[in-house]
Amino acid sequence: MASSLSKNNMKIREESALKIAEYLLRIKAIKLNLKTPFTWASGWNSPIYCDNRITLSHPVIRNYIRQQFVQLISDEFGDVDVIAGVATGGIAHGVLVAQELGIPFAYVRGAQKGHGLTNQIEGVIESGQRVILIEDLISTGGSSLAAVETVMNAGANVKGLLAIFTYGFPINSALCRNTCKIFALSDYDHLLQQALADKYIREEELTVLKQWRHDPANWNAKTIMQ
Known about the structure:
Layout: E1 2-4, H1 14-26, E2 30-32, E3 38-39, E4 45-46, E5 48-50, H2 59-76, E6 82-86, H3 89-101, E7 105-108, E8 121-122, E9 130-138, H4 142-153, E10 157-166, E11 170-172, H5 174-177, E12 181-187, H6 188-197, H7 206-214, H8 221-225
């Protein structure tokens, strides 16, 4: 059963969501460009490009994101045993969160290592432990949910999957339905709201930007704006 990473199944904290959107736009971790869309690896044309690794070069923003993750974990999950980063974008942020909470850290590879011990989980996650996974970005959700499955297969209890940002595409979240909750600190809707307020975009561009999220595979800015 498909569901959308939206307000229907993901709690978004309004004030911090807008603040993070402001930060991401300011440091160009997120770029919006209707005139010259970006091309994703999937071949989609997109008016948005997100690279949250840039936040690591900005201590104030990096620390704000860490504190929002920590507060979210405290509010929604209470005590957990391990923070696990999803490689590669979630590793650094996951380390920061684990350090703040004073608990162990591990990370999950996209695939088993092709040599040595062929690990897919680096670090120690034991059966029965309560784990929070940290992502930098949830796009279509495939790699994120694969990481959830990997940790579950190790016998751990995945309590939550947390990300800095999500586009809000529909994903098959059946894997998480009875085990973990999915949260993002900010999302596409709040990004557009903040981008308009800060004059990164104009009112007449909103329709085009919203249309992309509804049908990214067939989106064409020039056609929509005619």
